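Researcher: We are triaging several targets before committing to wet-lab work. For this one, the compound of interest is LJ64HWYM. I'm pasting the protein sequence and the ligand SMILES. What I need is the predicted three-dimensional arrangement of the protein with the ligand bound, expressed as structure tokens, so it can go straight into our comparison scripts without reformatting.
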Amino acid sequence: MAVYTEVFDDDVSAFLADYDIGRLRVLKGIAEGVENSNYLLITDQAPYILTLYERRVDPADLPFFLGLLRHLAARGLPCPQPVPGRDGEPLRTLGGRPAALVTFLEGAWARRPEVSHCAQLGDALARLHLAGLDYPLRRANSLALAGWHGLFEAVREAADGVIPGLRALVETELAFLDAHWPAGLPAGVIHADLFPDNVFFLDGTLSGVIDFYFACNDFLAYDLAVCLNAWCFEGEREFNATKAHHMISRYQKHRPLSDAEFAALPLLARGAALRFLLTRLYDWLHTPPGALVRPKDPQEYVHKLRFHQAIGGAGAYGVTR
Ligand SMILES: Nc1ncnc2c1ncn2[C@@H]1O[C@H](COP(=O)(O)OP(=O)(O)O)[C@@H](O)[C@H]1O
Ligand SMILES: N[C@@H](CCOP(=O)(O)O)C(=O)O
């Protein structure tokens, strides 16, 4: 359960005095998510999500994230909308943290994504990328290569105690990616954490995309690589090329990949696997003792990284040029 900062009915009732959205009826910590503290907040008018932004969110980035939600929704992508207070400002403070309310999206995430979910995800990802092209704000990816090095410095000494041999694996992989990371691929706004638990479906149809708090400017194809890792494995080790084929094909109906992007996919997938391996390892070692959160297992991303290291090219993802 991701609640790092506890807030209580009285605090939230006082907080709501700055809004025109009714009186508090229900406040419930949400038993999912990893990064921020989230509450379901129901007033006598509507349900909302109350988010208190935690350690990985730089408050200076919040206008980028909240503005992006408005920008994408205006271009037809179903995503939560920031709710402004009476003064027109969606960003406030609660429990000593930066906080905001967003609209509640109906639907549920796919616990066992099927081919049809992956295909719809490919659609939505391409629509997100196209809709983001004219977003005027910029945010560098703090979890790109330099950020992976920084994370690794913080876990290097403890890595082998979590998974034997992990330190050498990561050192070798970082050196490889430093030498081979592509340059000049098409870039734009990416979600950067589009896992199944951040995509809602209603009656089998994609109904919403949430959790834009890693969104940034980076290679568009890197976002596809994140999704290949998150959506196209059965369990931790078995890659499902049919799912990947449908995801990438539907993506390409809106935004065809260039030859350079296609060739770079295995590298980007290695980078994406390393990124989640490192944040999970960091969280495994640094989750605050009292936090109501279950850190995710880094081992899963060791298997995924090894898969991408072993393939001969992007053909392994079920697509050809
Ligand atoms: N706008 C929303 N509408 C409905 N449920 C939401 C919304 N935003 C978040 N949630 C719920 O909160 C959970 C955690 O949200 P998420 O943004 O993934 O948290 P975190 O930033 O901590 O990773 C989601 O899995 C979902 O159940
Ligand atoms: N998707 C990341 C963890 C971030 O959690 P989320 O709830 O924001 O998706 C992972 O699986 O490591």
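Researcher: Any quick observations?
Model: The mean pLDDT is 96.
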